[in-house]
Structures
1.
Amino acid sequence: MTSSLRWVQGRSTAWRTASWHALRSRLMRKLLRVVALWGTMAGGVALAVAWLPDALAELELFRAREYKVVGTRLLEEKQVLAAAAISPFLSVFDDLTPIEQRLAQHPLVRRAHVTTELPATLVVTIEERVPVGFVVSPVLEPVDRDGEVLPLDPVEQGLDLPVLIGAGGAAALSPSQRRILAMEAGRLASDDPTFLATVSEIAIDARGDVTAVVTELVSGDLLLRFRPPLSHRRLHDGLTVLEDAIHRRPDQRAAVLDLRFEDQVVVGYAEQGTGLRAEVSAPRSDQ
């Protein structure tokens, strides 16, 4: 009786094991079929996605017919579009990189980015090369913050910018000196354009020290001396000390604001009758 019961239990266990293996095998086959189906569908979708832009590019509906030019002040829209040289057969689904590359070759374009608005509009965003100063060669020519000469008529554009020169009024600048001065003028134009409007010239000497002639802050010209780069905070410190010095000595004319020394601001006064300047030191406002 006992042996018979064990035989029945053994057959039952074997049957359950076999049934489980069979069920697992069927489930695995179904899972593999589902994975294969999804793989086929995904491949089809990927193929469709890769193929769709090329197919749409052939449709007349998506031919670029309208253009928007944004970000320009110096360039006219017709100049931008002429430099872009956009094909009349261009689709909004075509590669727009060649247009950006052609625009970047224009001397007044720093960088360009072209996007689309469906169904048929190209949006051309321009970052222009902005003039920040003049160099003498021998006429006045505007340059951007990189020191690149720009093909602009100063009179036609109404440009009022500082002249970038060598020490002692020398017109000739080395390429590196021109870049340094242009970069400083560009930094001022970005940080404090109102202050830059008061600067008539910026000079650099053989040691790399810079002197800017500033008008309108005091009666007469003020010489601002510094070592590049001149940060916005350092300039603010100097102007704060200058304002305090003017209030403390209203009977004397401040003639020099020297920011070359890291731990102090120096204000120089024009002495009456002699034309000499007696410099006095003042602590920085952040100390």
2.
Amino acid sequence: MQMGQLRAFLAVAEQRHFTRAAKELGLAQPSVSAHIQRLESELATELFHRMKGKVTLTPAGEALLPYARRIVADVGAATEELRAVGSLARGHLAIGATPSLSATLLPAVLSRFHSAYPGIDLTMREAGSVDLVAAVEEGALDVALVILPVRQDVLETQALVREELVVAVSRAHPLARRRTVSVTELRDVPLVLPRVGYDLRSATEAACRAAGFTPTLAVEGGEMDGVLRLAAAGIGAAIVPSLVIERNGQLHAIRIAKPSLTRTIGLAHRRDRRLSRAAQELIETVRALVRDRSWLKTSPPGLTVLR
């Protein structure tokens, strides 16, 4: 099993097409086909269903996919480290963040990091914490800003801040004059919920269950930006991080009466893989920005920096 074969396998798996995979790799299409054929021969199994115009993974291909991603990522990290010893002149770093952090903390982090290390290519993924944790575990991301705790033993985490969740409503909403509200008072209030897989959805549903009711849905299935826009349009209330509510914006933030809802934000990376120097510097950039709070446009209620 060679690295060229695994890279060809990953490209075909992601593109679902041999020609597009070849273009991505900068190879001729017959070379990609030959890589896949040799890999299938070595493993004595087919990895793809070949159909006119597209390919799909076989069960064997699905089984190989996460291992191939980890192997290629680990080898890439080792190669990068050897080439960049004593220098951060070049390299690549993949970082992930939840939607609320992608809109608040991450722009300041990437701006400062890019100014210091312009030769490092940056890739960003915005997703729910569950998806980000899986991506770090698979090796698709070097570092991610996620919601703690995580259950995966293979990941090492560092807590950064504890933030408060608030109820976001439009300025015309019946609750808009309230400063605080209990979860129990949301029993008959239509809620806008993000899609399944977002920790905010899980947190909202868990809080409602603890208060003895199932939430009334106005709309479900949106991403963070969509949830905020729907709430601002008056379609329903939404439980969101206080970080995402702009001062004097379209949304009014109502603090949740005790017991309040909070969550801890932290960094996650694989503990069994040495961090590249670029990843180490990015983590230090994140920690420095969190400490000096310069990334905050407002002073969100209930935000605590964890030393």
3.
Amino acid sequence: MTALPARVLTEAADRLLALRAAPDDLARQSEARAWVEAHPDHRRAWGLAERAWVAAGDALDRPLPRAVNRNRGRRIAAALAACLALAFALPEVRVRLAADAVTPAGAGRTLALDDGSTVALAGDSALAVDLDGAARRLRLLRGAAYFEVAPDAARPFTVAAGAVTVTVRGTGFAVGRGDAVTTVAVAHGRVEVRAEGETAVLDPGERLEIGETGRRLSAVDPADVALWRADRLAVRDAPLGEVLDAIARRHGGGYLIGGDLRARRVTGVFDLSDPERALVALLATQRLVPRRIVGNLWRAAEK
């Protein structure tokens, strides 16, 4: 059985929390039911979220005294966080077995490859490297990376991120692999991007998003490509989820934020050296504020 995408798990948790907060809301019940029935992955994710409620104990199913009610959300969120951690346990083991380099959240690193190329690996990222006399093949298993490729006409340099493959011979470019969107941005040189039978050639200052809803080509200042290396992130009309992923790689937090909100477009410059402040600034673009559920687990709320 394949691992569930993180966005599906977080949306299931988000919908369950909303429904439990207003159990008599018929509209929410109908929306939740429609979402669960829309895809087999939704049903699996919903089952995991519901089991997290059961794991929180009988206290979830009976009224609590007012003094205890204050901590109800914390216990609920802790159970959901435990559920999500279990859901990610096996995929994490697979990533670590396949990777040659893994970084924890908040701690990127720079790799010097044998061919003279360098890779700046963001926090909470994983990379597999396979260099031989005929080709240079890398796989971004998770997260984001910036590649400065040493020229070698005889050995193409390819980076695979899921179903997306980038091929170059000598250039500087960034790849970000999210749950719903993979992005490629070019600082200098030229790259060829292939995905689902289609090919695109990107020049400096071009950025390509490839996701479930299709492709989106946009302009980017070459100086802003992989700006996360300087603990900043500059985006123009980018998915909110992309910024959220960058904050998570720097912060290590969890975010119960649904797919609809993650798909909204944002523009701005965010300071990743202060991830909580960056999260506040990001959600402010949507007239929302972050609310800490427990520990490093957050959700978006109306102001």
